[in-house]
Amino acid sequence: MVVPVLAVQAPPLPSESRLYDAILEALFAPYKARENVSKKQFQVLRLLRAVNTRMLVIDEIHHILVGPTNQQRIVMNAVKYLSNDLQIPLVGVGTLEAVRAIQADPQLASRFHRAELALWRMGREYRKLLASFERMLPLKRPSKLAREPVATKLLAMTEGTIGELSTLLKTAAIYAVRTGVERIDEPVLAGLEWAPPSARHTPSFGHV
After folding, report:
1. I need a surface site. Which of 63, 65, 75, 152 has the fewest CB within 10 A?
2. pLDDT over 80 (residue 29)
3. Helix, strand, coil: what percent of the chain each, to 5?
4. Rounded distance, CA 56 to CA 59, Å?
5. DSSP 3-state assignment of 191?
6. What one-character-per-residue DSSP string does 106-140 give?
7. CA dist., res. 208 & res. 206, Å (int)
8. List of long-range contacts for 14-18, beta carbons under 8 Å, 24+ apart
9. How far apart, in whole angstroms, are the C-alpha atoms of residue 13 and residue 165?
10. Of the candidates 2, 55, 46, which has an alpha carbon nearest to the alpha carbon of residue 20?
11. Stretch 17-32: mean pLDDT, rounded?
12. Among residues 119, 45, 120, which one has the least CA distance to residue 85?
């Protein structure tokens, strides 16, 4: 087996052991969750070399910020060690908080070049994106996501963020299956308890 690019998701809490678990799971390698961290590290390095890995992608890397500072540093040091020992490039994917997580360590920051993804806008590429998502949906009826008015509704609900779009479509697909509609249309989207990203960070004030 050859895995030139390996993509994993950072653990929800900063943990060196769980980071190695994520890598081992991505490689379909057997491991013991309670195994000594140093043994896991050795196994990860050995396997990544064996499958000729040339790049490691860590998604949700902003999770490093969650938890005690000492745990954050441990995980950052583990990432640096993998990069140094394997001599491969690292790609960190996440929110703007990911920049803060990486820049907290100058040596780690030197390994990354910041690149921001632009928000999606209505147009041909956006419609192609919707069409590609629809091909992966496990629904019995066509949703025609790339057509109006659903395309515009999805854009408004996600504010052009691809991560939000992916989560929304998964949620809508589950709702469509459970209700027997078997497609994503305006009524399905209206039936979801969904707030756009900006609304989730807006404080609400009540009247006494």
Report:
1. 152
2. yes
3. 50, 5, 40
4. 10
5. coil
6. HHHHTT----PPPPP-SSHHHHHHHHHHHHH---S
7. 7
8. 14/63, 14/64, 14/65, 14/66, 14/67, 14/68, 14/71, 14/72, 14/74, 14/75, 15/71, 15/75, 16/41, 16/74, 16/75, 16/78
9. 24
10. 46
11. 94
12. 45
Query: What is the DSSP pairing of strand 90-93 with strand 5-9?
Result: unpaired
C-alpha distances out from residue 53 to 30, 50, 109, 133, 174, Å: 18, 8, 22, 28, 35
**Range of lowest pLDDT (60-64, 126-130, 139-143):** 60-64
Place of tokens 């299956």: 177
β-pair partners for 77:
none
Q: pLDDT (tens digit, 9 = 90+) per residue, 40-69?
A: 999 999 999 999 999 999 988 888 878 888
Residue labelled with tokens 């690019």: 5
Taking residues 91-98, what's their average pLDDT? 81
How large is the average pLDDT for residues 179-201? 90
d(CA 102, CA 148): 40
Residues 195, 197, 201, 202: what is their CA dihedral angle, to the nearest 10 degrees? -60
Query: What token pair was written down for 153?
Result: 């509704």
Structure tokens at 69: 């500072």
Residues in the chain: 208
Residue with the two structure tokens 């308890």: 193
Amino acid occupying residue 82? L
pLDDT at position 129 over 90: yes
Tokens linked to 18 = 């769980």
